[in-house]
Amino acid sequence: MATLSHTGVSYTVFCLLGIPGLEDQHMWISIPFFISYVITLLGNSLLVCIILTKRSLHEPMYLFLCMLAGADVVLSTCTVPQALAIFWFRAGEISLGRCITQVFFLSSTFMCESGILLVMAFDRYIAICYPLRYTTILTRTLIGKIGVIIFLRTHCTISPMIFLLKRLTFCRNNILPHTFCEHIGLAKYACDDIHVNIWYGFFVLMSTVILDIVLIFVSYALILHAVFHIPSQDARHKALTTCGSHVCVIVLFYGPGIFSVLTQRFGRHIPLHVHILLANVSMLAPPMLNPIIYGVKTKQIREQVVYVLFPKQK
């Protein structure tokens, strides 16, 4: 590998290109980005306000949903404003410090959301399999402890990744063909050996997100086993309906991300701009659609939204 002594260059400022190959379309591409960001901010902020201000919604499921909505706002804010600055003003210049900070917040927020979705699956499992003990098991104290555990898990796993990035010297290039900074995308421009970064990134993925997916699958396997042993058909339908919103959000959160990773790994013939667009969709779609899904499928939230937006019609 090339070393710093060979080049005499150590980049501290990088340039994000946006979506390479579609530079002349950036203004048009910015329109769905901007609309989705506005919907994300309004939808999730409304969701948080309603849940926090309405005592009837101070239940475990809604408190976890409030956490998810807050994380959605952070996830979108980590990426969309930077992308819009590139599309509108060609302001792609970013310092190494800001780039690494973006990696930290992006990775940690994504991991937090994964942990929250796992806890929400556990919540549905308790609600369906142990309905009489639901409120005694999922107390506010336990919910607070779960929030702290998710926070600690995230920061204990992401902090070493950031340390591994900061130890690198970047001498290969300072042009990043993306709308945001991400771990390996930045590390591959280092002139140092990045095998530790690659393997640690793989370890983090397997020990958190992949483990979360497996545990969510197990939770829903147990839920389905319990549901199909309920003698009443109406009770079965009601139990499955309560899980509908969460299942939609799970598919929406993990689906685009998994598809994006698979195309990067196996779709070598796919143009670079398609990879970048897929990566952005995986960051844009879930935060925008989550509040819509819960607003449509959850009667209590839907009623509160109607009351807030159209008070005279209540």
From TrEMBL:
Membrane-spanning ranges: 27-50, 62-88, 100-122, 142-165, 198-227, 239-262, 274-294
Keywords annotated in UniProt: Cell membrane, G-protein coupled receptor, Membrane, Olfaction, Receptor, Sensory transduction, Transducer, Transmembrane, Transmembrane helix
InterPro entries named among the record's database cross-references: GPCR_Rhodpsn, GPCR_Rhodpsn_7TM, Olfact_rcpt, OR51/52/56-like
Membrane topology per record: Multi-pass membrane protein
Pfam families: 7tm_4
SUPFAM superfamilies: Family A G protein-coupled receptor-like
Organism domain of life: Eukaryota
Location(s), subcellular: Cell membrane; Membrane
Entry GO MF terms: G protein-coupled receptor activity; olfactory receptor activity
Function comment: Putative odorant or sperm cell receptor. Odorant receptor.
Protein known as: Olfactory receptor
Species the sequence originates in: Suricata suricatta
Taxonomic classification: Eukaryota, Metazoa, Chordata, Craniata, Vertebrata
